[in-house]
Structures are given as structure tokens and as C-alpha cells.
Amino acid sequence: FYPDGSYATFWGVKSMPKLDYASPLTQERFVHGPRAPIRYWMRLAHGFRLDVAHSIGEGGTNRKNARWLRALARAAKEERPEAVVFGELSYDAIPTLRAHTLDGAMHYAGFAHPVMEWLSGRDVHGRPVHLDTQETWRVLWDHYQALPVQLRHSMYTLLSSHDIPRALWRLKGDVERFKLAYALLFAFPGSPAIYYGDEVGLSQPNPYAKWQGDPYCRAPFPWEESAWNLEVLTLIRRLVKLKRTHPALRLGGLLPLDAGKGVLAFKRRYRGQEVWAFFAPEGARLTLPPGVDLIAEKEVAGEVEATFLLFQPV
């Protein structure tokens, strides 16, 4: 509270007061006590997402933020040792995660933003931006390298969310680029998150000229199957299966591949198994050794034209 009787809030919204973690009562009610929400829910669930995690702290600010993130994560793991605690970190998550705070974070700065800027030509606020393939790879690679090793596979990688415009809408309904983006999401290290509706090609009702996420990105799910893009659904089901069944995609390291100009390419490698990933929004002709197109489930070799490809050499 302030001397005039007002109190700290999130973004000035009076119904969303900020907690002062310097207060012993807050510490008891929200961290240490048996009825603390994070402890209560970890007796029932297996993970916890801290909303606006970078704003948690003392005195209505984010002072001692890392200390209290560690305390909240510790409380969760005291109730359930295998609990996963990750945070909504809208900005660069690296400094917070390198302070040994959480098990991961929503990967906006190191994945969602660069990928969608590359494919759409606009940033998350709708401003024109030009990020070429080489620059996109550099951002992805730099963030991957900067992450603590133990967190590289537990980052919440995403393309759409409840706070930003949907990916398909940002791509002006370009289904091929949307599919490429999701193939990249599942090929890249991390724990891929499918925002509800993306799996059936849900976009937004607002015109592209009216750049806005919330509330349009939170539109109801279309339950009528006639409104679904079954091509997108089939692809995402296939990608989910590949992520679950191929150790290289789930646990493998990340190494760059040189596939020519305009192609973002890398390999995932785990215990001798490799998966090569290629992404070319404008299309590319690739020269490949004998192997398998994992998405199409067919053998390929020699010259192949593709906009995206997950390939396993034999």
C-alpha cells in the first residue's frame, strides 16, 4: 500500500493487486504455509505456470525477483519432487533462468518472436521488420547456447498464445507458412506448446489492418468439424508422434547445417541417431543422401524440392 491508501497493481488494474513478498504474511500465505496455492495444487497436479513471473517481488516491484522465483519453485518441489515450474517471461528469459530460478519459461524472445518475424515480416506489435534467414538462425542459436544445458529441452516453445496474435492470422492465412512454422516448432529443442485451435487452423476475426491479439486471439474453439483445416490437423498429429517417438527430436543436441541461401537448416543428434531439419519459406532444392522423409513417411534421395522437411539419413 501507498501512503495515500492506493496500492500497487498489475498494469493499473485495480482488481489485480500485486503481492508484496517482503511481507511475512504474504510469505506464509503464498510460499511457506501449507495452504499456499502452489503447494496445494502440487498435491493434485504435476506442474505450475507462474503468470508474469518477471514481476514477482517486494514492495510492489520485482525487487529480489530471482529469490522469490526460487522460493516458489522450491515450495512446489517440496510437495512433488518431479514438479515442473515454469514462468511467463515476456522478455529475454536468459538472465532469470541463469539465476537457477525455474525449470523453463515461455520462449518468446528466443523462439516465438524471431520465427514469426521471419515468416510474417512484422513484430508482435505489428511493426514492419525484416529478419532474414541468417539473422533468424543467429537469434535461435544464440538463445539456445545461452540457456543452461538442463533447460534446453524444457523451454515452453510456442507460436501463438492468449496474449499475442495467432500465428495463422499474423501470416495472413498462409497455411503453408503456418505448417512450416509448426514443423520448426516440433523440430527445435524444447517442449512444444500448441495453442488451442492452432491444430485446426483457427485464425482471428479482426481485419489484418487492426493489429491486435487479446481478445481476438481468445476466440472460442470451432467445434463444428466443417470449420477445421484437416490438412493442418493431420500434420500436427504427425509432428506430435515424431516428437514422442524420435529420441533425437526429444533429447538431441542442436547443430547447424549449411543448405544454401534462404534455408534455415539444422540437425538434431542423440546417441548416433540424427534428424535433419530444413525450412525454406520460398522453397528450396535440396540434395540429400538416401534417407526417409519423416513427415511423408517415404524414402527420398538426391534432389528434393521442399519448403520444409524433417529427414532421417540411413
From TrEMBL:
GO biological process: carbohydrate metabolic process
Keywords: Glycosidase, Hydrolase
Sample GO molecular function, one term: hydrolase activity, acting on glycosyl bonds
UniProt domain Glycosyl hydrolase family 13 catalytic: residue ranges: 2-243
Protein name as it appears in the record: Glycoside hydrolase family 13 protein
Database matches in InterPro entries: GH, GH13_cat_dom
Matching Gene3D superfamilies: Glycosidases
UniProt entry tagged with the keyword Hydrolase: yes
Domain of life assignment: Bacteria
Organism: Thermus tengchongensis
